[in-house]
Specification:
The protein has 305 residues and is α/β, with parallel strands linked by helices. The protein contains 8 helices and 15 strands. It binds NADP nicotinamide-adenine-dinucleotide phosphate.
Length: 305
């Protein structure tokens, strides 16, 4: 089988097709034929070598946390799935591959209402969005501002927050305003118009790259919480705010979040915008990683067979 990985850190062109035997499922695991996988900014940082100082991995490195697959083999003791089931798997690495194995706790059946592309791109952004709301721990009726609400993480935070009864201000670039309107936020705004809002109990900065246009501390109430998805520490501008950096804590467990996402996709009209469906090839992965390096149109990048 083929995996899409690299033997050196660098530009998107480091990806190559790597031959290996398909992995065999251990007890409690399933083997999946990968039908598609999501691409995330996290994969690009792995490829650039930014995680090398704290994450010891040996080459070749095959990224990929988000997989849509079809069950092809059952390991000993597996009764939850049958061969042929189409499932979503969240994993630490290795999803850019023709076949993977996965423990059953990290796999859920694909909700029928969710399209293939959305299902392939759901895992990491879903777990991030769930972790964000868990760490903010807001009460129903409180106000949450979401910067970068057009993105993979931001759009899910908006939808989950509405589902949990929060009042939501969704903020993103002007090109994304129609999409924000469709997500059910109470109020939408561009970055330029946002300073007038100034009343959020908490603000999430889900802008890729972490630059929040100087808004995070401005639109959050004194004593409120500013949560950033970026590693860079934001400027609180001397304001008394609680600061949370998403990467500092372990994210919520896939075993908890995947069933929640499946329920959400079944009971609500969950919207996952897809920017680009890329071919299941080295060229497709390279093109996807080139797009990850740009301020591309909002939505998920997915590779599909
Ligand atoms: N710590 C964790 O566990 C964790 C997990 C997942 C993600 N993350 C981080 O969360 C952030 C959001 O992830 P995502 O997958 O939602 O990202 P994304 O969809 O690629 O981007 C989110 C939004 O950021 C804006 N944007 C995109 N590229 C930009 C650029 N080059 N310069 C300025 N703005 C840009 C866009 O909004 P507008 O065009 O509307 O401004 C976009 O909709 C990333 O930094 C990611 O690394 C962290």
């Amino acid at each position: 089988m083929i995996r899409f990985g690299f033997n050196q850190y660098g530009a998107p062109q480091v990806f190559q097709a790597l031959e290996s035997d398909p992995p065999q499922p251990k007890p409690g695991q399933v083997q999946l034929k990968v039908l598609g996988f999501g691409l995330n900014p996290y994969d690009a940082s792995l490829r650039r070598g930014e995680q090398a100082p704290f994450r010891k991995l040996s080459f070749p490195i095959v990224p990929g946390t988000d997989v849509l697959g079809s069950v092809t083999q059952l390991g000993e003791g597996v009764t939850e799935f049958a061969v042929g089931d189409v499932v979503i798997n969240y994993r630490p690495i290795g999803g850019y591959s023709e076949y993977v194995t996965a423990s059953v706790g990290k796999v859920i059946k694909k909700p029928a209402l969710l399209g293939d592309a959305a299902a392939a791109g759901l895992g990491q952004v879903g777990i991030a969005a769930y972790s964000i709301l868990q760490q903010l721990n807001l009460a129903s009726g409180q106000t949450l501002a979401v910067l970068g609400a057009s993105g993979g993480v931001g759009a899910l935070v908006v939808q989950m927050a509405k589902h949990e009864g929060l009042r939501v201000l969704a903020i993103a670039g002007s090109a994304s305003q129609p999409y924000l309107e469709s997500l059910g936020a109470d109020q939408v705004a561009t970055y330029d118009a946002a300073p007038n809002l100034a009343a959020a109990d908490a603000t999430v900065n889900a802008i890729n790259g972490g630059d929040d246009h100087g808004l995070g501390s401005v639109i959050t109430k004194v004593g409120g919480t500013l949560l950033t998805t970026a590693y860079r520490t934001p400027d609180l501008q001397g304001k008394n705010l609680k600061l949370i950096q998403l990467g500092d804590d372990r994210p919520a467990k896939a075993e908890v979040v995947l069933p929640y996402l499946a329920e959400l996709a079944t009971t609500t009209s969950l919207s996952i915008q897809i920017t680009e469906r890329l071919p299941f090839s080295v060229a497709g992965v390279v093109q996807g990683h080139e797009l990850l390096e740009t301020h591309h149109a909002p939505g998920k990048l997915v590779v599909l067979r």
